[in-house]
Amino acid sequence: MKLFRTIFIFNLLLSYSFIGFSQSEGSSIYQEIGLTERVVQMYPNPASDYLTVKLPTPNASSVQLAMHSVIGNTLNIEKEQIDEYEVRIRVKDLPSGYYFLSVKEEHSGLKATYKFLKR
Questions:
Q1: Chain segment 41-78, per-residue pLDDT in tens
Q2: What are the angstrom distances between the C-alpha of 13 and each of 10, 26, 86, 106, 115?
Q3: Are strands 50-54 and 64-69 parallel, antiparallel or unpaired?
Q4: Domain extents for the chain?
Q5: Fold of the 2-118 domain
Q6: 32 within 8 A of 22, measured Cβ to Cβ
């Protein structure tokens, strides 16, 4: 029964990550569990070659991106800035599966983590 409860909680956390768990200064509990409009857009999801991250403000040069595997390993990512709002990440060489992308921007206080699928 304890194992079932642990698996249930883990799946619940993954489902929140799929929605988009975002937090910023002055955010409400609804923003923290992803019930409002996403702050950051990622597409395509699932991705095969590249993942595009679109930001709401022109801060692409100051955004810190970190990619993690489902088990928590930090991965090296190759990224390029498309314009002031978009960054493209190469995911072509990653094995198929789920990954987490953490987005952090100091100036606006944006801290968000999103889950995506690599095909």
A1: 999 999 999 999 998 888 788 899 999 999 999 999 99
A2: 5, 22, 27, 25, 11
A3: unpaired
A4: 2-118
A5: Immunoglobulin-like (2.60.40)
A6: yes
